[in-house]
């Protein structure tokens, strides 16, 4: 089966990890700060905190945004559940903004209308978690004008978008328009650390808060101790109820090695997306908008004439590991119980009914891609 996504690990990556195993600290050593610095250098962000997953990063971003009981967080329903779960971890509640049928990202028009309504009802969200679906940046300028106007913290879920640029040509993660950006290093994402993630920001107080909560809420910085605590040389101070969301040095070493290849990975994905775009143009499918700045995490077509389940099963039986991104978050039984209704998100529903993710990753060979294309022609012509 040709999978929809897959990591690329080479000898350098293996050497980077074995080096740490043989020579250094396994955790809380020097690799994590080097990885964090490299993430800042790549994106232009002032601060990066490496964590043990993208999900942890989203949780920490919501903590840093001050989300707590009574607060509402809005996000896109066309995402992995972690984009919404992070608000619930903090005791907040979630609501969704329908998507734009062309970009499949959160719709700026729907957001504008929902904000006006929420202001009237005095139910404005505390934070907005944007998802750069498939690696294509949301309209950051327009959205940040809205969140700025209403005083809403803007968090980017850029799990798909490390290595992408926004429409203004800024690297996603530079946080030119947002308060924080969260990314993931799960094996299917732009680069991998096996499990891992990071939170990026230009705001030092947010970065300090995230770092504190990623490590038990404990600080070892004597300047933050009381006078009597400072007299005790063994002292460390728990200042807040934190978690253990740290990334290990083994994972960070893999991240450092992978990050050097990010440009090549994204370039390879873009090239293959271009090939699909040409090769599938004659089929009865709606192709993704071609965003040359996208990191191309996913390549999703929408069937316009065929039954999705039948095509899904047929392609799987022929060895093409198609997938569906995403089951709208409000479809999950956990969210249904919270009272969400599909009829509130007509664009997301329409998209979800016909969406199909095709294999796309740097190690997908030309032969494999031709095979996928030929099978698609056979099944859909
Ligand atoms: C992968 C992903 C996450 C979660 O990242 P993990 O590192 O797997 O915890 C969150 N949001 C989106 C959109 C993702 O694709």
> Taking all residues together, what is the mean pLDDT?
97
Task: Tally the helices.
Answer: 14
Helix-and-strand structural type: alpha/beta
Which sequence of strands runs across the widest sheet? 1-7-6-5-4-2-3
Describe how the helices and strands are arranged.
Blueprint (H helix, E strand, L loop, with lengths): L10 H13 L7 H13 L3 E5 L2 H11 L7 E4 L6 H8 L3 E4 L11 H14 L5 E5 L8 H11 L2 E5 L22 E5 L12 E5 L2 H11 L3 E2 L7 H4 L6 E2 L10 H11 L2 H18 L5 E2 L12 E5 L4 H10 L15 H4 L9 H9 E4 L7 H15 L1
Parallel strand pairs: 2-3, 2-4, 4-5, 5-6
Antiparallel strand pairs: 1-7, 6-7, 8-9, 10-11, 11-12
Descriptive labels:
single chain, 381 residues, alpha/beta, Aspartate Aminotransferase, domain 2, Aspartate Aminotransferase, domain 1, 2 domains, seven-stranded mixed β-sheet, three-stranded antiparallel β-sheet, 14 helices, globular, binds pyridoxal-5'-phosphate
């Amino acid at each position: 089966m040709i999978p929809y996504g897959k990591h690329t690990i080479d000898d350098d990556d293996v050497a980077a990890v074995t080096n740490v195993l043989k020579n250094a600290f396994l955790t809380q050593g020097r690799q994590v700060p080097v990885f964090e610095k490299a993430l800042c250098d790549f994106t232009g962000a002032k601060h990066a905190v490496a964590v043990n997953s993208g999900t942890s990063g989203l949780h920490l971003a919501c903590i840093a945004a001050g989300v707590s009981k009574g607060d509402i967080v809005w996000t896109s329903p066309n995402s992995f559940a972690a984009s919404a779960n992070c608000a619930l971890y903090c005791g907040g509640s979630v609501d969704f903004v329908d998507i734009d049928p062309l970009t499949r990202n959160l719709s700026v028009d729907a957001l504008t209308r929902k904000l006006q309504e929420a202001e009237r009802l005095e139910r404005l969200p505390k934070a907005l978690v944007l998802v750069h679906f498939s690696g294509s940046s949301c309209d950051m300028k327009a959205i940040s004008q809205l969140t700025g106007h209403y005083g809403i913290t803007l968090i980017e879920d850029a799990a798909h978008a490390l290595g992408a640029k926004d429409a203004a040509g800024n690297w996603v993660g530079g946080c030119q328009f947002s308060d924080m950006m969260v990314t993931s290093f799960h094996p299917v994402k732009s680069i991998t650390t096996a499990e891992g993630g990071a939170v990026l920001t230009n705001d030092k107080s947010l970065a300090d808060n995230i770092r504190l909560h990623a490590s038990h809420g404990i600080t070892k910085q004597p300047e933050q101790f009381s006078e009597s605590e400072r007299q005790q040389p063994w002292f460390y101070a728990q200042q807040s109820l934190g978690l253990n969301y740290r990334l290990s040095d083994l994972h960070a070493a893999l991240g450092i090695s992978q990050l050097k290849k990010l440009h090549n990975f994204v370039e390879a994905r873009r090239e293959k997306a271009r090939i699909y775009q040409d090769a599938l143009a004659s089929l009865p499918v709606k192709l993704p908008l071609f965003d040359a700045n996208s990191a191309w995490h996913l390549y999703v077509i929408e069937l316009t004439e065929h039954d999705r389940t039948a095509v899904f099963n047929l392609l799987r039986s022929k060895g093409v590991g198609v997938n569906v991104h995403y089951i709208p978050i409000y479809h999950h039984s956990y969210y249904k119980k919270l009272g969400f209704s599909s009829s509130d998100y007509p664009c997301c529903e329409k998209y979800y009914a016909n969406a199909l993710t095709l294999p796309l990753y740097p190690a997908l060979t030309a032969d494999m891609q031709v095979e996928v294309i030929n099978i698609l022609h056979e099944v859909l012509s």
